[in-house]
User: Which sequence fits this backbone?
């Protein structure tokens, strides 16, 4: 049982659930394991109680608990039916429901047979596959949950931002922890890049060995329960080689933000000596590698981003990119190091854009690239990410693709060192950390 006194609010997601309270759609919270889905359901249950819903009207079931682990679909239906109060609306909170074979029929039966409001979590995209969509005929709403944003990281780790006057007459931002110690904002951001945004890190503290132990547990659980075991439960064994799976995970983690085609992954692994030569018996085919990558995407371990031809106005099939759901998991896999920092910043910005509700693609402008095209509800934002805008060469490289886009949507360059100029011919240059702190 989660101790509700220790739960920290994640208002972005809680407010979405509250907005759909007592509406017909089943509320489905998806995301990688340990990103806070169970806590979110507990927070929603607390919200209901605080607003007059009796505890007896709330049924909470976590199917990872031993009490429910071996429950069949029929037993699941009977358990809930026995606890339904006559003439009262029931609220069902069903955590990691994908572990129950045939759960789709049972949830659909609840919708038909009971006066209830249903909330579900799942750690695998198969939960919302075409089969399940058929059962609910679109009568569900998905809340996509991510690890902590930088703003949430500050809150979870009890950091408070304080503004003080600088010697030049402007303002200087400092951060204080729960003990009153002061830090530069950049120091705390570097800690975020090091440890990542898994909520459990806040429980063990920003200490490397304990953080690695927690991240190891998350990694092992995702790989075993959501990839290897999942295939067995579905009756089609595809992901059978844990060694190959780990090699592909390491490769994708090492190449976040790089243009990759799945067909090239096998070739590169062969060239690096991580796989056998394709002429030898037993080498995985491109189709097999694709299945392994798909399983990693389904478990929300990695996210794929397509390329969009801005002038041709179409998505391209080739050379997308992959980003890892949590930068702390990448450091756990590859070791703590100071290389590839540019791609790490891209990774952070990509998930911040998702968190803010944008659909995101990579932009192609002729033979040049824009890091992100972010779109939502008629709004569009073009974003470049770089470590520094101080050098003339870097400024030219980052600005030229944006200058070739003729529409009037906002264009933004995010960097840790924006330089003195706030804009270049209408293209805004913004401090990346300040942008992350915006509400």
Assistant:
């Amino acid at each position: 049982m989660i101790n509700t006194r220790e739960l920290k609010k994640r208002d972005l997601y809680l407010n979405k659930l509250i907005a759909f309270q007592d509406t017909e759609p089943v509320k489905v919270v998806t995301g990688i394991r340990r990103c806070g889905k169970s806590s979110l359901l507990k927070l929603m249950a607390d919200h209901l109680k605080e607003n007059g819903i009796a505890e007896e009207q709330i049924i909470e079931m976590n199917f990872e608990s031993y009490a429910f682990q071996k429950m069949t679909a029929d037993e699941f239906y009977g358990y809930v039916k026995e606890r339904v109060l006559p003439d009262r609306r029931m609220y069902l909170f069903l955590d990691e429901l994908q572990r129950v074979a045939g759960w789709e029929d049972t949830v659909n039966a609840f919708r038909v047979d009971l006066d209830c409001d249903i909330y579900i979590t799942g750690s695998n995209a198969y939960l919302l596959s075409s089969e399940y969509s058929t059962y609910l005929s679109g009568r569900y709403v998905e809340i996509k949950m991510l690890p902590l944003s930088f703003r949430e990281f500050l809150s979870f780790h009890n950091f408070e931002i304080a503004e003080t006057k600088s010697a030049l007459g402007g303002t200087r931002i400092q951060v204080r922890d729960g003990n009153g110690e002061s830090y530069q904002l950049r120091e705390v951001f570097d800690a975020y890049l090091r440890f990542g945004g898994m909520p459990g890190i806040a429980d063990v503290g920003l200490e490397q060995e304990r953080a690695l132990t927690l991240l190891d547990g998350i990694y092992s659980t995702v790989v075993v329960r959501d990839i290897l075991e999942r295939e067995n439960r579905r009756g089609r064994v595809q992901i059978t080689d844990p060694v190959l799976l780990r090699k592909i995970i390491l490769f994708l983690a090492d190449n976040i933000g790089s243009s990759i085609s799945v067909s090239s992954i096998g070739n590169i692994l062969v060239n690096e000596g991580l796989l056998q030569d394709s002429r030898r018996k037993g080498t995985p085919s491109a189709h097999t590698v694709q299945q392994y990558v798909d399983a990693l995407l389904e478990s929300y371990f990695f996210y794929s981003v397509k390329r969009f031809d801005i002038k041709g106005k179409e998505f391209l099939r080739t050379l997308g990119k992959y980003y890892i759901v949590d930068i702390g998991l990448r450091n756990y896999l590859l070791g703590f190091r100071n290389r590839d920092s540019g791609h790490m910043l891209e990774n952070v910005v990509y998930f911040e854009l998702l968190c803010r509700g944008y659909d995101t693609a990579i932009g192609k402008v002729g033979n040049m690239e824009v890091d992100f095209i972010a779109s939502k509800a008629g709004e569009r934002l073009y974003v470049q990410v770089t470590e520094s805008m101080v050098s003339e060469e870097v400024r030219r490289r980052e600005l030229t693709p944006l200058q070739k886009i003729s529409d009037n949507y906002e264009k933004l360059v995010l960097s840790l060192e924006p330089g003195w100029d706030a804009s270049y011919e209408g293209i805004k240059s913004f401090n990346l950390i300040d942008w992350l702190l915006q509400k």
Q: What stands out?
A: DSSP finds 16 helices and 16 strands in the chain. Residues 208-233 form the longest helix (26 residues).
